[in-house]
Write a structure and sequence with these properties.
Blueprint: E1 11-15, H1 19-31, E2 35-39, H2 42-52, E3 56-60, H3 68-78, E4 83-87, H4 92-101, E5 106-108, H5 113-161, H6 165-179, H7 183-193
Parallel strand pairs: 1-2, 1-3, 3-4, 4-5
Helix pairs in contact: 2-3, 5-6, 5-7, 6-7
Length: about 200
Amino acid sequence: MKPKTISQKPCLLAADDDPLILFTLVEGLTEAGFDVLQARDGLSALELCKSARPDLALLDIRMPGMDGIELAQRLKAETTIPFLFFSAFGDENYVRQAVAAGAYGYLLKPLSVAAIVPTLRTVLARTREDAHRQARQDQFDSALESNRLIATAAGIIMRDLGMNQAEAFEHMRAQARRKRVKLIDLAQRVITHGTSSSHS
């Protein structure tokens, strides 16, 4: 699936086994400017999330085959699709399970589409912020890991070739340029195979 551009509509998945509620949601959300996918059971919703990758999934709690809580757990484990719940059941146990599953919200039926649209737009904004934050964290973690590997390789070269730290780093940079490989790849070779790999 191609990445969305700024001009594309947000895509939602609505999952509910009640055809009237589903119809009302799909019609209202489409009129509000969303692209809306629909599923009548948890398994269908899971497959749609994996294939179409909506921006947000709206999950009923009670559905045949796979209920909303189990579906949410599968979504969290197997996809990056954010989700929220809507249900006629507002007891504390359901809400606690929803929070534990990682839901962005819990809406009570009967739903007024006009009333929930601001909530949905707020959740979509939060999910985008969370995705950007996670991407930055992943980049930071990757940089830390790269620095750790490069520093470890430099230490091995210092020990084996009798170089100081600056000389070891320059040796690695020169060898990486000569071999036309990334510095991190050369560092991994040194750690795995020893200093001979930085010359061969």
